[in-house]
Task: structure prediction
Amino acid sequence: EVQLVESGGGLVKPGGSLRLSCAASGFTFSSYNMNWVRQAPGKGLEWVSSITTSSAYIYYADSLKGRFTISRDNPKNSLYLQMNSLRAEDTAVYYCARGQYQLQGLNYYYYMDVWGEGTTVTVSS
Amino acid sequence: DIQMTQSPSSLSASVGDRVTITCRASQSIRRYLNWYQQKPGKAPKLLIYAASSLQSGVPSRFSGSGSGTDFTLTISSLQPEDFAIYYCQQSYNTLYSFGQGTKLEIK
Result:
């Protein structure tokens, strides 16, 4: 069964750090781009970061201002999100999601086809 | 950045109704548009990718259309399990922005 399981969430004080993990199983992890998406309480989805298969290309939402770092360990089938200088507005459920490409004609279309159940991060004093 | 705007923000409908949700991009995204469904307390689920391609296992009552800046998600005959929040997402560039969501409620 294809599965993603996030962990590492919790309560942290403003200015603190947290490292999220996402364990993948049931597919060849090293063949897929991976993503982090978050959802603040009662709010919509916000894309956070993406990483390509070999970590050659990494992308972040502008709003993060260099505080977050995405990484992956392919032999361990794991994705990570290091979050520093945390703020109250970072409080959210953080999802990891697998990226998939589909070739149609001459175009590759990208979408997120497998999601974990999420891990909750609460930033509060 | 590409801004994605959905309308309406919420919608009341009855079982059996035909429902259409609209997503507009702030610039042309050709057909790089995905739709997701999210139920309370659950992870999002992919419904449609590349504007109109149905993800495997998704019922055929869901369909997507559009290109450029204007897109629609249509549910041909609402079922009880379809009441949820729907999000569009652009994948034209690598800042994969989402729309703000459309909450579909039971009338």
In short: The CA atoms of residues 30 and 75 of chain A lie 8 Å apart. Chain A touches chain B through 26 residues (CB under 8 Å). The mean pLDDT of chain A is 97. Chain A has no helices and eleven strands.
